[in-house]
Amino acid sequence: MSVREVPQGEWASTLEAFGREHRAWLATVEHVASDGTRDMLLPDRPLAGVFTEGERTGLAVRIELTPDSVAGTSSLRIEDPVAVRVDLGRGGPASTLEIEDRDGGRTCVRFRANPALEMLDGVAPGEV
Predict the structure, then answer these.
(1) Which pLDDT tens digit goes with each residue over 45-62?
(2) Taking a C-beta distance cutoff of 8 angstroms, is the pair 29, 42 a contact?
(3) CB-based contacts of 98: which residues, under 8 Å, 6+ apart?
(4) pLDDT per residue over 16-48, tens digit each?
């Protein structure tokens, strides 16, 4: 496990690249509060993208998953993030994205499977 803290000036490009690299991968989004309490926010849905919104003051990170007719919710907005971390895993694509908010909570995007780069063909399911 190799966690890298992303400098704020690189958040937009890193998050956009992360979303593009993992587009349509089954993702689970959970929030871990500063007291350690975990809350599953969006379980097992294909990732649509990750974006920054706003300026340095009023900055937010938006995580979009493909809509689900049962769960309904397809996006999550993290207001005033203070840190963005990427777990680079074992040499493959990043396995986890973590956004820390000003209250010390962390929103984590994790994937069911994290294949090695050589196993990927660059085409997401449903895009053929």
Answers:
(1) 899 999 999 876 689 999
(2) yes
(3) 3, 83, 84, 85, 86, 87, 106, 107, 108, 109
(4) 999 999 999 999 999 999 999 999 988 888 999
pTM passes above 0.90: no
Question: The tokens of 94 are what?
Answer: 């990043």
User: What ranges make up the beta strands (E) of the chain?
Assistant: 3-6, 26-32, 38-53, 60-65, 75-79, 81-87, 96-101, 106-111
Exposure pattern of 43-69 as b/e (b: 16+ CB <10 Å)? eebbbbbbbbeeeeeebebbbbbeeee
CA 87 → CA 53, 62, 72, 77, distances in Å? 22, 19, 28, 21
Six token digits for residue 110: 């994790």
> Which residues, in sequence order, are CB contacts of 124 under 8 Å at separation 6+?
23, 24, 25, 46
